[in-house]
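quick one
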Amino acid sequence: MKILRTPKELQEYRKSLSGSVGFVPTMGALHKGHLSLIEKSVARNDHTIVSIFVNPTQFLPGEDFEKYPRRYEADKKICKLAGVEALFMPEVSAIYEKDEVLLKAPHQKGYILEGHFRPGHFDGVLQVVNKLLHLTKPDRAYFGKKDAQQLYLIQKMVRELFMDVQIVPCDIVRDEDGLALSSRNVYLSPQERQRALLIPKSLKRAAKLIQSGITDTSMIKEEMLQILRPLKVEYVEIVNKDFDAISKIEIGDSIILVAAYVGQTRLIDNIWI
Ligand code: AMP
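structure w/ adenosine monophosphate:
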């Protein structure tokens, strides 16, 4: 497996490839959620490139950029075993210049939900994903449904900027206890981890209500908020696949989203109905 450190190295490597290329962008501290994306790419493409880059522009001041887990050696092993051909691990200074040309997330859909509570977050996400897609020129790029709004905005960017890449959405991978895997789960104490399980529990409850025929979203949100009461909830929202809030569930076109703090740790989760 090649370790590439600079955009130039990556561009030269990319030029040397023939056949299809799959790309999996990550911030590292890889877990089975990331691995599921990597495995999909390896199975479907002739070559797979993974990036590990803790992107400073998507963190707000006061967020966990400094303490975000960095596990470069373990990550390298995971990628190598999974059949990744090239791992792009640049320094921040290799990716950003001063006073850059900026990409802006859309006014509306980029500033609701995650974008409301983390204003500017998606500007940074789109900025870096745009750069990474230009460098890797993949046929397919793999993103998790775990970050549902991110996935939506990346699909929107790719469409609107006429980028020639297929975005492949991947299902959420959970731990045995139901908690969605996240690099941030390492911040949780054992007690906090127990409390964090209220998040998947609330989503399961919502799915059950829907199975029993309830479609009124305010009723569903109310029940979820009851379950989530011990946590500091930022939002519980139900949207369609265009991220418009909806009053009635439409099977096949609804996403139920939660963001909540467990102690100091901010977690997000969702289910697609
Ligand atoms: P991150 O390293 O958190 O930026 O995540 C990199 C990619 O992995 C993103 O597309 C995420 O949506 C995806 N991802 C993170 N956690 C999970 C999970 N539990 N299941 C599936 N995909 C995930």
